[in-house]
Amino acid sequence: GQQLNQSPQSMFIQEGEDVSMNCTSSSIFNTWLWYKQDPGEGPVLLIALYKAGELTSNGRLTAQFGITRKDSFLNISASIPSDVGIYFCAVSSGSARQLTFGSGTQLTVLP
Amino acid sequence: GAVVSQHPSRVICKSGTSVKIECRSLDFQATTMFWYRQFPKQSLMLMATSNEGSKATYEQGVEKDKFLINHASLTLSTLTVTSAHPEDSSFYICSARAPPGAYGYTFGSGTRLTVV
Predict the structure, then answer these.
(1) Residue A98: pLDDT band by 50, 70, 90 thresholds?
(2) Which residues in chain B have Cβ-Cβ distances shorter than 8 Å to A103?
């Protein structure tokens, strides 16, 4: 199946710092999505990207859809304690447009 | 809008018994729902695509006779784990494609299944 390489696997940062994580693929995708998952909960959509080169913001979050359509990154600026969680990239493919998820980035924000 | 409700949130069952998990789209109709499984510290892995009024499509390696999926209405899909074993213990999450006008996919809050 599809494989997304997400990095880093985990990050420990100080409150107030900026964070960057990315996903790459060997295949081209037309939709990239970024989700956050809190412990014991389902993922929540943060940003959806539908156009190569697109740069989209949602508050302190900014994500870009790579021009090659094989990668995407997510930036979080001025991190706060509630940013703690697991962040997943995902792509939509297949006849049912099902999602394939990256391996996740566990973010810990230290006070 | 585009809320997906999943029940139960947590269930413990004895080995050999069956467990049913429900996934409902509360304020929209979902002709297609998806079922994922997530083991600790791992990503979400798609198990099957649930299609209203027809058979589910299972991913390679997922036993369709063990994980029964029923999508009898436009707002309800159920996953039944039959003859559960401890290795079936996992976090099961459903999702539905958001309705027209919205984007992305909405996820349920997940079901933590523990088989003892």
Answers:
(1) confident
(2) 42-43
Give pLDDT tens digits for A9-45: 999 999 999 999 999 999 999 999 999 999 999 999 9
**For residue A94, what are its two tokens?**
């297949």
Residue A102 makes CB contacts below 8 A (sequence gap 6+) with: A4, A5, A6, A23, A88, A89, A90, B43
Residues of A with Cβ-Cβ distance to B42 under 8 angstroms: 103-104
- Give every residue of chain B whose pLDDT is below 50, as ranges: none
Asked if A88 reaches chain B (Cβ–Cβ under 8 Å), the answer is yes
- How far apart are the C-alpha atoms of B48 and B45, rounded to whole Å? 9
Q: What is the pLDDT of residues A42-57, one digit of tens each?
A: 999 999 999 999 999 9
Q: Which residue has the tokens 């063990």?
A: B66
Quote the CA–CA distance of A54 and A48 in Å, as a whole number: 10
d(CA A91, CA A3): 10
Is A11 within 8 Å of A106 (Cβ atoms)? yes
Is the Cβ pair A42, B49 closer than 8 Å?
A: no
Q: Which of A46, A33, A35, A51 is nearest to A93 (CA)?
A: A33
